[in-house]
Write the structure tokens for this entry.
Amino acid sequence: VANEGGKHWTVNEVRALIRIWSDKNIQQQLEGTVRNKRIFEQVAARLQKFGIDRDWKQCRTKYKNLKHEYKSVKSAQDSGSTSKSMKFFNELDAILGHCTTEQASKSHNDESERPPEWTEAKSEKDSVG
């Protein structure tokens, strides 16, 4: 079963990964770096305590996949589509939902990816004058 991608993650394994990921300390470390092997080694070590045997690469891959899936569901929802959904959306939204404004200001996103309150605030000011 252990091919290049490793065996499929069970629901409990993903829940445990998300629980560790929701740790503010882990989040801060992940937000601040691209070279994150050391962080995922910590994550894997914490999973071991739950009796979950995953190496850091598997943890990082699952993290990236969950994050990617979350973003695609989130952007589909933002554009009014309800057809896309995922199993752990609410849990991930609790972790990732807060940092989207930060990322929007950091990276050079176009207007459509900015939080709605920015564009609303602008139009209110325009209508006052």
